[in-house]
Design a protein that fits this description.
alpha/beta, about 35% helix, eight-stranded mixed β-sheet, binds nicotinamide-adenine-dinucleotide, about 400 residues, single chain, 18 strands, Rossmann fold, 12 helices, six-stranded parallel β-sheet, Dihydrodipicolinate Reductase, domain 2
Length: about 400
């Protein structure tokens, strides 16, 4: 594979905050070719193309946008991605960055058109959909990776290494939180993050479920999620507050709280972290990650000109920042970039190998367990399916039964 074309479906927050600038950086490094972005509305494409921070960081870089904003800001095309993907040469890369409930359609469209695929988390919302993706991609020797960027935070990688060296003993109890800012309620989220489609645990709790497996190798066996509904400004209702309890196959218990509630005036873009307690049978062990605060405190002369910008700010240099390395423009730093870089390189590695070697490379990626793939991370879909079932039944426990096929049921 020379330089793959990249088509990103979705041009919203995650596309803007992390994926497009990361792709531009890879384009600057000559790793990838042309970039196309397909959203639902012309205005989304226009806003992404006009974004001042991205333009400042990547002068001279651009993408082809669909629908064409010249046809009108409100031009809407919900099925245009099918046409755009069908028109790509085979075995390039599609990135799915659309709302959770349409991941499956977009991903399957890409795979059926012989495209390698990177999906923002969660891959899909159902175990049978994840199994279908795995099967279809495997039969075509296509790479599929889910973008769980916390895996590329050095603290996650260090915790994983220390746990696997036996330094912590065995995981017993954990408590995690990830609260996004209140202003998210005013965003496009109010159009799709509704009770029938998603919830705070599905949206962001999955990061810490994935983290616990990534570090310990344990798999979840039951889930209960209690949710509180709240109204978005447009009147739509969503589970904007959730409290989840996940039991693991060694009997350990993880509690995860999520919401769209962190005050807009609080410093930093969210509050998040995890504490885990372990034992080797003779002594206890402990891990405490403060994931929103990286030891930086700034008080500016005026409000920072970004969504949710504050005067007092605790920036994180870990997830994603632009830094000046002498130009041209600015460079992306942080695990948000490293994650995209790693996934794109994996797809290129598979495609660049002779056909007969691709299956072995895909298995090597699955077995390494660093990149989340349908084959090594289907516990995430199991937890989401069980969590949704529990949430819609007042927080009753849903068990994940392994088997062919695995299934979830309330007890
Ligand atoms: N921490 C994380 O890993 C993280 C953070 C944010 C979002 N996400 C995930 O990214 C996905 C998108 O979230 P977001 O925050 O960017 O949401 P968003 O609402 O800001 O953007 C959604 C985008 O999808 C596009 N879209 C919707 N339907 C479409 C269609 N039929 N065809 C083409 N485009 C369509 C919209 O135009 C919009 O650009 C979700 O799955 C979310 O869970 C992950």
């Amino acid at each position: 594979m020379l330089k793959p074309q990249i088509t990103m479906i979705g041009g919203g927050m995650i596309a803007h905050d992390q994926i497009l600038p990361s792709l531009y950086q890879l384009q600057r490094q000559d790793l990838i070719g042309e970039i196309a972005v397909c959203a639902q509305h012309g205005r989304t494409i226009q806003a992404l193309a006009d974004n001042a921070a991205i333009r400042r960081a990547f002068p001279g870089h651009s993408f082809r946008g669909y629908p064409d904003p010249a046809a009108g800001a409100d031009a809407k095309d919900s099925s245009g991605y099918q046409r755009i993907i069908a028109a790509m040469p085979p075995r390039q890369i599609v990135i799915a960055a659309i709302p959770d409930q349409i991941h499956h359609d977009v991903i399957m469209t890409a795979i059926r058109h012989d495209q390698h695929l990177i999906a923002v988390k969660p891959l899909v919302l159902r175990m049978d959909h994840a199994a279908e993706i795995e099967r279809e991609a495997r039969s075509r020797n296509l790479f599929v990776g889910t973008e769980y960027h916390k895996r590329f935070d050095d603290r996650s990688l260090l915790a994983r290494r220390r746990y696997r060296e036996g330094m912590f003993g065995e995981f017993k109890l954990g408590t995690a939180r990830l609260m996004e800012k209140w202003y998210y309620r005013n965003s496009n989220f109010q159009n799709w993050f509704t009770a029938e489609n998603s919830d705070a645990f599905t949206y962001i709790g999955c990061h810490y479920v994935d983290f616990v497996h990534f570090v310990t190798g344990l798999v979840p066996v039951s889930v209960s999620v209690y949710g509180i509904k709240d109204r978005f400004p447009n009147g739509n209702e969503g589970y904007l507050w959730t409290d989840a309890r996940v039991i693991w196959n060694n009997g350990a218990c993880l509690n995860v709280q999520n919401s769209l509630s962190f005050p807009d005036e609080a410093p930093g873009s969210n509050t998040q972290g995890i504490t885990m307690y372990f034992s080797d049978g003779e002594r206890g062990a402990w891990l405490d990650h403060s994931d929103q605060y990286r030891g930086i405190k700034y008080c500016y002369t005026r409000r920072l000109g970004i969504d949710g910008g504050t005067v007092f700010h605790e920036p994180s240099t870990e997830y994603f920042q632009y830094v000046d390395l002498g130009g041209p423009g600015l460079a992306c730093a942080g695990y948000g970039f490293r994650s995209i870089d790693h996934l794109i390189r994996a797809a290129i590695r598979v495609e660049s190998a002779p056909g007969a070697e691709r299956a072995a490379i895909l298995m090597e990626i699955d077995d390494a367990g660093i990149i989340a793939t349908p084959a090594n991370s289907s516990y995430n879909e199991a937890v989401i399916e069980a969590g949704r079932l529990s949430l819609q039944n007042g927080g009753k426990t849903a068990v994940i039964e392994s088997g062919e096929p695995p299934r979830v049921r309330l007890i």
